[in-house]
Amino acid sequence: MPSHPRILFGGASIGDDHVTQEEVLHLLQGLKELGIKEIDTARRYPAFNFGASEQLLGQAGAATLGFAIDTKVLVTSADGNGSLTPEKINESADFETPLEDQAAALDALHKAGVYNELGVSNWSEDMLIRFIAICKHHGYIQPSVYQGLYNVLCRDRETLIPVLRANGIVYNAYSPLGGGFLSGKLTSGNYDGTRFAKDNIIGKFSKLHFDKKMWHEAMNSLDETLKIANISNIEAALRWLSFHSQLGPNDGIILGASKLEYIEQNIAAIQKGPLPEDIASSMAKICVVV
């Protein structure tokens, strides 16, 4: 089977669905058995309990268990101490500070040993190019990771990939299932008990984006294609991103889940390998329509 991108666990559910140190340790053990060695988190995780994800990962000793922790930082002290202490973390630049000041400060923190690698998330191509130029001019540490939205329907960031390749930057793709939209449940109307349910606050934001005619038409077209091959929407989306997208083996796919069993199912889907050529081709055409 061809190699596929690295798999990272998305830690947004830690502190929400996994709320105790024991539960997090159980999750980490399961991830380790699946061969997942990286966890993506952020100071804003989970959505209604800021910082709990980082704190629980720190308490569980995720780094000492062999996991690499990537995080997005809101505010940190000068010595880098925080919820993940004493672990080193992978930093993320902010959007409010001028790029020149930002680059200088992040370089100083790197030299102080606060973090290992520099990553940016959701930056525009222009901003990233300017930031890299500043780093090269001053000899500062340059980004080695870019994190952005990428799935079979949301592919606008593909234009950025040549810039990443030219500068040795890997792409870590989040929302491989479009925030759950690619499950097809929102389009079918069968979404009780899912994130699209009326009582799910987070799901309301996803509905604002996806509950539109063009997305549902794309989803219906995808359904017709997959029914013939007896492949589920989720499996197809994951296999497409793993083997037919512009991601390479050094890039990453961030898989989040409220339960370990969902991650196990997603890994099993990816391990089925590339999609049949006609299915992959049909999915690519659907993306072009969108």
From TrEMBL:
Gene3D superfamilies given in the database record: NADP-dependent oxidoreductase domain
Keywords: Oxidoreductase
TM regions (residue ranges): none
Limits of the NADP-dependent oxidoreductase domain: 6-93, 94-284
Recorded GO MF terms: oxidoreductase activity
Keyword Oxidoreductase carried by entry: yes
PANTHER family the record matches: NAD(P)-LINKED OXIDOREDUCTASE SUPERFAMILY PROTEIN (PTHR43364:SF4), NADH-SPECIFIC METHYLGLYOXAL REDUCTASE-RELATED (PTHR43364)
Protein name stated in the entry: NADP-dependent oxidoreductase domain-containing protein
